[in-house]
Amino acid sequence: MKIVLDAAEVETIVERMAIDLYLHVPSIENLVLIGIQSRGDKLAERLRILLESKMERDGIQAKLPLGTLNVNFYRDDLVKNYDSPNVRAIDINFDINNKHVILVDDVFYTGRTVRAALDAIFAEGRPSKISMLTLVKRPGRELPVLPEFIGLDVSAADNEYIKVKLKEVEGEDLVSIHPR
Ligand SMILES: O=P(O)(O)OC[C@H]1O[C@H](OP(=O)(O)OP(=O)(O)O)[C@H](O)[C@@H]1O
Ligand SMILES: O=c1cc[nH]c(=O)[nH]1
């Protein structure tokens, strides 16, 4: 096992991504965050808090809506979960029509999770734009999608797995790389 990011480094990178979003999103009031469970939603919540504090500092009065997606329900390589009655696939209690959606996940790998997430989002409405943000991007793309906001580009071989731990789930922030 090799540590890629420790807790302080995860915090720094999440803060940097919040700054990046804040500076590069054309209309912050039009932004909505959608986090992919089970860690993208926790990262999206951290980003929401950081972005709202920047907005407050700059006198922008708006709340950023935050929704979550459980993509296992939709993933084309996990058909066995398709009929699971326990899976709540999407929790978005706001209008996404004409909004700029920031889709948030912890790891970006083949791109299949994002494809599945796009299906789910378009079943809800028609955003004006969808951008992808990931804490870690690794090699292994199988679809023509790429994140716009990347915390860290990590090189990993096919026989290696990147494991993200977050305080909200595992009690600590840590990104590590393991043999599969
Ligand atoms: O680009 P992809 O190949 O789709 O891989 C990326 C997905 O893989 C991981 O999820 P995982 O299925 O391991 O579930 P988890 O997040 O609940 O651990 C990660 O959290 C991403 O959602
Ligand atoms: O390395 C990987 C690949 C997919 N999902 C992960 O969380 N890590």
Automatic annotation (TrEMBL):
Q: Where is the Phosphoribosyltransferase domain?
A: 4-146
- Give one GO term, molecular function aspect: uracil phosphoribosyltransferase activity
Keyword check for Transferase = yes
**EC annotation from Swiss-Prot or TrEMBL:** 2.4.2.9
Q: Which EC class is the enzyme in?
A: transferase
Any single GO BP term = regulation of DNA-templated transcription
Span(s) of short sequence motif PRPP-binding: 101-113
Q: Which reaction does it catalyse?
A: UMP + diphosphate = 5-phospho-alpha-D-ribose 1-diphosphate + uracil
List the keywords (alphabetical).
Glycosyltransferase, Transcription, Transcription regulation, Transferase
Instruction: Note the PANTHER family from the entry.
Output: BIFUNCTIONAL PROTEIN PYRR (PTHR11608:SF0)
Please give the NCBIfam families that the UniProt record associates with this protein. PRK05205.1-5
Q: What does this protein do?
A: Regulates the transcription of the pyrimidine nucleotide (pyr) operon in response to exogenous pyrimidines.
Name assigned to this protein: Bifunctional protein PyrR
Quote the gene name from the UniProt entry.
pyrR
